[in-house]
């Protein structure tokens, strides 16, 4: 697949935010269009793509494609995906955004046929995680999410260690101050400007979260990326 730039990493790590930053500077960037939860898509679009789904398919890229590995504090990713239910023991929470099924069916925006499509979409997430990782093996949801963060970032990091692709890793928490470094990486003479952050999943209801200790391997990766885990 020919792309000038791919932005990837874990979900809930700012890929959509960075898409908006680049778009505001005139760099057209698609979000989860060339790489979807169902895999690589043969579609026309901008030469820049942001998608966490791309991680298992990096070998599909041209060796000239620049790859930006965007990372975020693991506890923040776990908290966000726990609210969404990405790795919940049952898929219901991910399907209904944590709301009663009867209430969901009563809405005009999610009638039965659309609900079936939503179920298919959620199952595709589980299938992707099962093919690319072992993160769904632990019994506890938070343990699954710790493993997701460690293994998904590991897929990207391992590829970049052996691939010739130009690449850069940035932490979401310092992204705004590193925008000049990003512009230099992209070799563009543009002024990238920070934008207001926004919650892109406001309709998911919060759930109590039972934290478990961060696994040693995940902690080690987080520290290597510059984070100091407090869980």
Question: Could you give a short description of this structure?
Answer:
By secondary structure, the chain is of the alpha/beta class. The chain is built from eight helices and seven strands. The model has no long low-confidence stretch (mean pLDDT 91).
- Beta-strand portion reads 5-15%
The name of the CATH superfamily of the domain at 5-72 and 149-204 reads P-loop containing nucleotide triphosphate hydrolases
Strand order of the largest sheet: 2-5-1-6-7
Q: How does the major sheet shape up?
A: 5 strands, parallel
What string gives the helices and strands in order?
EHEEEEEHHHHHEHH
Distance between the termini: 39 Å
Rg computed from alpha carbons, rounded to a whole number of angstroms: 18 Å
Number of strand segments: 7
CATH topology-level fold name of the domain at 5-72 and 149-204? Rossmann fold
Structural class: alpha/beta
How confident overall, as mean pLDDT? 91
CATH architecture group name of the domain at 5-72 and 149-204: 3-Layer(aba) Sandwich
The best one-word shape is globular
Low-confidence stretches: none
CATH class of the domain at 5-72 and 149-204: Alpha Beta
Determine the number of helices (DSSP H or I, runs of at least 4 residues): 8
What share of the residues lie within helices? Answer: 25-40%
Overview of the structural elements:
It is a single chain. This protein has a domain at 5-72 and 149-204: 3-Layer(aba) Sandwich (Rossmann fold). It is of the alpha/beta class and 231 residues long. It is built from eight helices and seven strands, in the order E-H-E-E-E-E-E-H-H-H-H-H-E-H-H. It has helices at 15-24, 74-84, 92-96, 101-106, 112-132, 141-162, 179-186, 216-224; strands at 5-8, 30-31, 35-36, 39-40, 48-50, 66-71, 167-171. A hairpin with a 2-residue loop joins strand 3 (35-36) and strand 4. The longest helix is centred in the middle third of the chain and has 22 residues, at 141-162. A five-stranded parallel sheet has the order 2-5-1-6-7, with helices on both faces. The protein has a two-stranded antiparallel sheet with strand order 3-4.
